[in-house]
User: Which sequence fits this backbone?
């Protein structure tokens, strides 16, 4: 029987017994209602089970140090101890992680009004992309903006992109000479900003991309840090020390916007209109151009650098990838084209496996704006709800030989295939990435070209450790040895 039914029955009985004594009836009714109200509150509280909470003896900071040192280890240990859903505090904020495919479904199936992205991302992205775009606007508007951007990311364009990227890559690596040891991550970061700009912005803007503009992008990027996101802006933190990164970030945003205003490229955006017919204004166009470039910059450069180290570590695999170039494209290795690129399936699996073991976005986050239920627990309003692709991609219940880099695992029966969110390097649901296909075209073209140019080795067997101090987990000391192939 529901509480309100019990309440009316009790009231009815009492009224019957008390007959005409109106005052007593009112009094009794009030007492009963209040008692039942209180009881229902207590019962509701008892029936609401909050996620297990990882205690900490450090006030305010909580687990920030342990998490910052080794976030994946921290989350994996917590998973072992507490299960797929648990909460902990860092820097005064409570985080609730949803680990594994089933728990993660809450985030990917939720509405933005309930688990909100703007609340957690906008303080980081709005100063970089500018106002009026991405997380600075209500999500239905951002969804329209994503649609506009997606129109530029189609197969007809990808066909041109392959040629552009191959040419940029060949030109870039001329400076490497025939053999040596170089910082692979740095090189790929520079190359990817050039190729992404050529493909997504057009050749006019690419031609302005000299070292000064690259520095402006780097300054904008300084805005993407743990500190900028987690901590109040007034704290005198080390990462803000270097001539105040925030100042550099804001100045860089203004200058880059001016460069875009000089040009009338990305006609798609200029011609685009929202559903109600109004066009994008100049700020929105500039913001979208910056966002387009930066969304793929770290993600793709980190991924391609890790992919290089995985191939350098496994020489037999590297040999197979080079042989695949010849089998698919022809013995004399003619210029790449989009259709051949699609058939480079081993290279594609290497990329897929790299994104499994080193997904650049290690945590996706939302703010709980209404109470949420996962694994039988109630997640209260105000918790930052998180899903970690990195952890999902290596859970031992889901992945066989979970820590092995094995691109061929996707050829076999693969238990993870049955779990919807076991593999989510590009997210899922309404916030899913729009750049996946472009990223695959870009990284596969770059690595096809690099494999044709060079043979790669680790330097004295060193495989980079993971740098956890950056928001995207980059390779630490990413030096690679290379030697030109004899054609
Ligand atoms: C290896 C490359 C990339 C990876 C691993 C990646 C990963 C992701 C992930 C995990 C999300 C979901 C974020 C969340 O749910 O909180 C996302 C969203 C997004 N990505 Fe990517 N991305 C990549 C490249 C790109 C590129 C090249 C572009 C643009 C051309 C791009 C544009 C976007 C956009 C616009 C969103 C939507 C964010 C939202 O709706 O909230 N990404 N990406």
Assistant:
């Amino acid at each position: 029987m529901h509480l309100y039914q019990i309440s009316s029955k009790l009231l009815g009985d009492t009224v019957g017994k008390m007959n005409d004594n109106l005052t007593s009836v009112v009094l009794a009714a009030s007492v009963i209602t209040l008692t039942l109200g209180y009881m229902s509150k207590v019962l509701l509280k008892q029936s609401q089970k909050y996620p297990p909470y990882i205690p900490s003896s450090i006030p305010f900071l909580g687990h920030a140090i342990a998490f910052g040192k080794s976030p994946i280890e921290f989350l994996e240990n917590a998973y072992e101890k507490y299960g797929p859903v648990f909460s902990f505090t860092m820097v005064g904020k409570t985080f609730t992680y949803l680990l594994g495919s089933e728990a993660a479904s809450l985030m990917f199936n939720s509405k933005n009004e309930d688990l909100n992205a703007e609340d957690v991302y906008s303080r980081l992205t709005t100063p970089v992309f500018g106002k009026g775009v991405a997380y600075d606007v209500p999500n239905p508007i951002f969804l329209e903006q994503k649609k506009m951007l997606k129109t530029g990311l189609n197969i007809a364009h990808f066909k041109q992109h392959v040629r552009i990227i191959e040419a940029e890559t060949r030109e870039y690596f001329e400076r490497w000479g025939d053999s040596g040891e170089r910082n692979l991550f740095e090189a790929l970061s520079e190359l990817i900003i050039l190729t992404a700009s050529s493909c997504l912005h057009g050749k006019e803007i690419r031609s302005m991309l000299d070292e000064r503009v690259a520095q402006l992008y780097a300054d904008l990027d300084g805005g993407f840090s743990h500190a900028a996101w987690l901590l109040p802006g007034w704290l005198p933190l080390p990462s803000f020390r270097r001539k105040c990164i925030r100042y550099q970030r804001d100045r860089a945003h203004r200058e880059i916007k001016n460069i875009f205003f000089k040009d009338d490229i990305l006609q798609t955006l200029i011609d685009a209109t929202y559903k109600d017919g109004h066009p994008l204004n100049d700020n929105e166009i500039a913001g979208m151009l910056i966002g387009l470039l930066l969304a793929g910059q770290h993600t793709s450069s980190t991924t391609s650098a890790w992919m290089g180290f995985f191939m350098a570590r496994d020489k037999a695999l590297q040999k197979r990838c080079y042989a695949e170039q010849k089998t698919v494209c022809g013995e004399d290795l003619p210029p790449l084209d989009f259709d051949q690129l699609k058939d480079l399936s081993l290279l594609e699996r290497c990329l897929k496996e790299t994104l499994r073991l080193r997904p650049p976005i290690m945590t996706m986050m939302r703010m709980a704006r209404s109470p949420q239920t996962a694994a039988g627990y109630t997640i209260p309003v105000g918790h930052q709800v998180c899903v970690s692709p990195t952890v999902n991609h290596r859970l031992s219940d889901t992945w066989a030989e979970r820590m092995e880099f094995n691109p061929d695992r996707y050829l076999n029966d693969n238990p993870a295939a049955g779990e919807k969110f076991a593999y989510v390097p590009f997210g899922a649901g309404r916030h899913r990435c729009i750049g996946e296909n472009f990223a695959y075209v870009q990284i596969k073209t770059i690595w096809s070209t690099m494999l044709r140019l060079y043979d790669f080795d680790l330097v004295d067997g060193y495989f980079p450790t993971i740098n956890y101090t950056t928001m995207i987990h980059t390779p630490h000391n990413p030096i690679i040895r290379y030697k030109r192939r004899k054609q």
Notes: Residues 1-44 form one domain. Residues 117, 146, 292, 295-296, 299-300, 303, 360-361, 364, 425-427, 431, 433-435, 438-439 surround protoporphyrin IX containing FE (CB under 6 Å). Residues 1-19, 229-242, 260-265 have pLDDT under 50 and may be disordered. Residues 166 and 449 are 6 Å apart (CA to CA).
